Amino acid sequence: MTGTLVIVRHAKAEHGMGDDHARRLTGKGRAQAQAAGGLLADAGIVPDRVICSTSARTRETLELALEQMPGRPQVDYEDAAYGADDHGLYELVNLVPQDVGTVMLVGHNPAVAQMASSFLDPEAYGGYVAFPPGSVAVVRMEVEWLYAAPGTGTGHLLTV
Fold first, then answer.
1. Residues near 5 by Cβ (< 8 Å), separated by ≥ 6?
2. Are 60 and 87 in contact (CB under 8 A)?
3. 3-state class of 13 per DSSP?
4. What is the DSSP string of 14-63?
5. Rounded distance, CA 105 to CA 89, Å?
6. 10 Cβ partners below 8 Å, 6+ apart?
7. CA separation (Å) from 47 to 3, 27, 80, 103?
8. 20 to 30 A Cα–Cα from 91, which one of 56, 77, 84, 144?
9. What are the angstrom distances between the C-alpha of 159 and each of 9, 21, 33, 136, 151?
10. End-to-end CA distance of the chain, in Å?
11. Mind listing the pLDDT tens digit for each residue in 119-159?
12. Dihedral, CA atoms, 91, 97, 103, 106, nearest 10 degrees?
């Protein structure tokens, strides 16, 4: 069985000199997170499972997005997703049981942008793929989760 991978960059967060892990969303970020959830719901894309970084801004992005969608998926808050590179994020996706249809990953740049870019055709986006805060990429996987890696699916940006 192949599935759908939804890659989400956390929405706009406060700037801060203190604890990076504790940074929260701005008003604009809260609106971005809600809009991302609305776009997913309107497209009929609802996650069965979520992998989310443990930072405050990713958790808040996830909660606001899920408020716009029906149902409640299983959520795995992963310390390893905070500060992970794209290879680390793939490793988390590789652990998803094969019977899960749609996985949403909520994380941080540059890792989520690199991951999303590996599934997108840059020519479709003017030669450059931007992935600003609140961005969502949807990838139709061509392999089971265990084998998810760069280029093993075809994606598009749901937000621009």
1. 93, 102, 103, 104, 105, 119, 138, 139, 141, 148, 153, 155
2. no
3. strand
4. ---SS-GGG--B-HHHHHHHHHHHHHHHHTT---SEEEEESSHHHHHHHH
5. 8
6. 25, 29, 33, 53, 55, 57, 58, 60, 61, 106, 107, 108, 133, 134
7. 10, 25, 20, 5
8. 56
9. 11, 25, 11, 6, 20
10. 29
11. 998 788 777 788 999 999 999 999 999 999 999 999 999 97
12. -40
Of how many residues is the chain composed? 160
Q: Which amino acid is at 27?
A: G
The letter for the amino acid at 145 is W
Q: In this structure, is the dihedral angle defined by the CA atoms of residues 94, 131, 117 and 111, taken in order, positive or negative?
A: negative
pTM for the predicted model, two decimal places: 0.95
Structure tokens at 158: 């749901």
**What pLDDT, on a 0 to 100 scale, did the predictor assign at position 30?**
98
Q: Are 156 and 124 in contact (CB under 8 A)?
A: yes
For 110, the token pair is 């540059």
